[in-house]
Each structure stands twice: as structure tokens, then as C-alpha cells.
Write a structure and sequence with these properties.
This protein is of the alpha+beta class and 100 residues long. Helix content is 32%, strand content 30%.
Length: 100
Amino acid sequence: MATVKLLLKPNKVNKDGESPLYIRITKDRQSKFISLGITLLPDQWDEKNRTVKKHPNAVRLNNLIAQKVADAHGVSLEMETKNKFVSSKVIKNKVMGKIH
């Protein structure tokens, strides 16, 4: 089973001091990252609960993030129940719509 986690990358800070938010998919110790296209200030990200806080659109962003994470989990489960080859790269490509 692949693990899906959210990660704010503090090493990629833009000129406004915001860091990008990624989904990290790990399977068999191999990780792939999917950018969510969301950038946040460090104080707008709750590391413990993996949610957006103190942001004007926090509720909407959290809903979007939850949907993307659910999509990644769904792809992983679907592929594993069909006994298809599953890797972090395959899951990433399927989530991003590159393979069907």
C-alpha cells in the first residue's frame, strides 16, 4: 500500500516568503511529488494536522487538498485491488491524468 502525505517544502521559498505544498506518494521506499499549485506562508500551515490555517481561503483550500489526497488514495487502492503493478510513479501519473 502506498502512503500519501502532504508536505510544505520550506527549501523552495518564493519572493513573497511562501513555500509550495506537495503531495508525497511513497511506495516501496520510492517517493514522487505532486505539486498542488498552492503556496503558503509557514504560519499558514498546520504541520501536525496537515491543514491550512490563518488563510482567508483556508476552508476552500482544505477541501481542495482533501479531494486531491483522496484521489491519490483512491488510485492506489484501485490499482492494488486490480492486482496491477503499482509504483509511486504510476500512481503520480494516474493522479495527474497521464495514464488511464
